């Protein structure tokens, strides 16, 4: 059994929606009692953005002589997607035969193509304070802001703090 449900934004409506509007819609989702899934991480989280050591850490045996994807000393500067495509065609097929590399490489490209690399990273000691502040958002104001942004209006926040 799966204890959570995965929701995906697939409508064309979301392709043309600004990231600010999507953030407002997400905040409204939380304010309306919507749930989220939090996944723990190590002390030093790894970024999927411009991180040539990422694939070295995931597939250390396969990358011993390659230097990782996006490595500065790459002989022919390839995009990450082109580099992954090249590795999948490598003569000994080590990357094709790896049970995870094709899936992770493809998912990585999808994530990078579908996001603006925005995220919230909070130290554990600050998490309760941040969560409480999010819970204190006035839902009427949030609904108004979300509606304005969905109409394409520009919204500029004013803080009383």
Mean of pLDDT: 77
Shape: elongated
Unreliable stretches: none
Structural class, from helix and strand content?
A: mainly alpha
What does this structure look like?
This protein has 161 residues and is mainly α. It folds into two domains: 1-45 and 131-161, no CATH class; 54-114, no CATH class. The chain has eight helices and no strands.
Looking at this protein, list some descriptive labels.
single chain, 161 residues, mainly alpha, 2 domains, 8 helices, 45% helix, 0% strand, elongated
Brief digest:
The protein is an all-alpha fold.
Draw up the topology in text.
Elements: H1 12-15, H2 19-31, H3 54-58, H4 80-88, H5 94-97, H6 101-114, H7 124-135, H8 139-150
């Amino acid at each position: 059994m799966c204890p959570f449900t995965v929701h995906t934004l697939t409508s064309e409506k979301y392709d043309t929606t600004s990231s600010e509007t999507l953030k407002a819609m997400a905040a409204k989702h939380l304010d309306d009692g919507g749930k989220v899934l939090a996944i723990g991480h190590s002390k030093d989280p790894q970024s999927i953005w411009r991180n040539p050591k990422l694939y070295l850490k995931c597939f250390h045996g396969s990358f011993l002589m390659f230097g990782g994807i996006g490595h500065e000393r790459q002989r022919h500067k390839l995009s990450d997607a082109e580099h992954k495509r090249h590795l999948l065609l490598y003569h000994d097929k080590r990357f094709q035969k790896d049970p995870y590399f094709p899936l992770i490489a493809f998912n990585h490209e999808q994530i990078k193509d579908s996001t603006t690399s925005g995220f919230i990273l909070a130290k554990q000691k600050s998490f309760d304070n941040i969560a409480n502040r999010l819970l204190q958002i006035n839902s009427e104001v949030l609904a108004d802001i979300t509606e304005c942004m969905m109409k394409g209006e520009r919204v500029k926040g004013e803080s009383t703090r």
